[in-house]
Amino acid sequence: MRVIIIQSLDWLARICYKAGHNRQIKACMFLLCALAFGALVWLRTVRTNDFRVYPLTPPFLKATLVNRYVKATGNLLTKGAYDIKVPLLGFFWQSIRFIPMSINGSNDSLEVLDEGLPTQAGTTNPITLVGKLLVGEDQYPDYYLKVEDPPNLVIYDALAWLCVAVLGSVVFGVGINGMIRRVDYAVATPLGLTNKAGWKPSTSFVLWFGSLGAGYADVVLRQVPVSFRAIPAEARLTPASQPDSWAVVIRRLRMVHMTIVATSYGALPAMRIEFEDERGITRNGLVAASDRALMTKMLDVLRFIGQ
């Protein structure tokens, strides 16, 4: 169990480090938030519409039900069907067919657009149609029924909750990333959890977590093997593979906090330090070592630096 916890914490820190230093990931998260927020605004607008189905009976005036869903029962007068031609894109003509529908108790017929009609529409038996009552323009009838079912609000609500979950996840992820960034992407193990008893690395090593300072554009590194060298005036942490590429210079140790952090090598002893660099600027970072004895030696040396 302890191995799983340590590996999980290290995995979380690595993911946060990559996400915080990858422009593509940042752009994707911003785009995802924008899409989720836009969809949420659109869904809220849609949700405010009236999707109830009103009965279309003689006491109701058609004008009061425009752009609403209605339910009409009557007989389709297929023999009275007619076509109209309307311009399409300004260059073509489109033929649209309407079928009158007689409604019991009403002297006026209801024009029904011949689209999406059920299979029994051609019979003489009364049928019930559900659709949207629309206002006609140009050659269209004054009012006509477009047969369609109201949208499923359950789907809209589920999509809205999905958008909320996406936004919440991104905000939560940004918050977690900020918290882990504050500890230099080195997460302390809970209750000082360590590796199994008897575990020892094959070689001694030192790892650096933190910023390289203003001299290196404040680049933040995580779990970089470094070499530790010290003279009475300062201590230097340089990359083990390329010692001349950069250096973290410690002129004076201001504060230190001993801890145990999760790394790819397991749970390692570490010290969070606040120090003064070669420019006199106070900085923070974390140094981890392969064993506690090595960490103690480095700490003893750092305490005498700048004295």
Envelope shape: rod-shaped
Radius of gyration: 36 Å
CATH architecture annotation of the largest domain = Roll
If helices are DSSP runs of H or I spanning 4 or more residues, what is the number of helices? 4
Task: Give, in order, the helices and strands.
Answer: HHEEEEEEEHEEEEEEEH
Describe the largest sheet.
7 strands, antiparallel
| The CATH topology of the largest domain | PH-domain like
Structural class: alpha+beta
What's the total number of strands? 14
Portion of residues in helices?
25-40%
Mean pLDDT: 88
CATH top level assignment of the largest domain: Mainly Beta
Low-confidence stretches: none
Classify the beta-strand content into a percent band.
Answer: 25-35%
Our count of domains comes out at 3
Main sheet: which strands, in order across? 11-10-9-8-14-13-12
Determine the N-to-C terminus distance. Answer: 44 Å
Describe the structure.
The protein has 307 residues and is of the alpha+beta class. It folds into three domains: 1-51 and 151-182; 53-147, OB fold (Dihydrolipoamide Acetyltransferase, E2P); 185-304, PH-domain like (Roll). Helices cover 28% and strands 34% of the residues. The chain has a seven-stranded antiparallel beta sheet. β6 and β7 form a beta hairpin. The longest helix is centred in the middle third of the chain and has 30 residues, at 153-182. The chain is rod-shaped and about 105 Å long. The two termini are 44 Å apart. The mean pLDDT is 88.
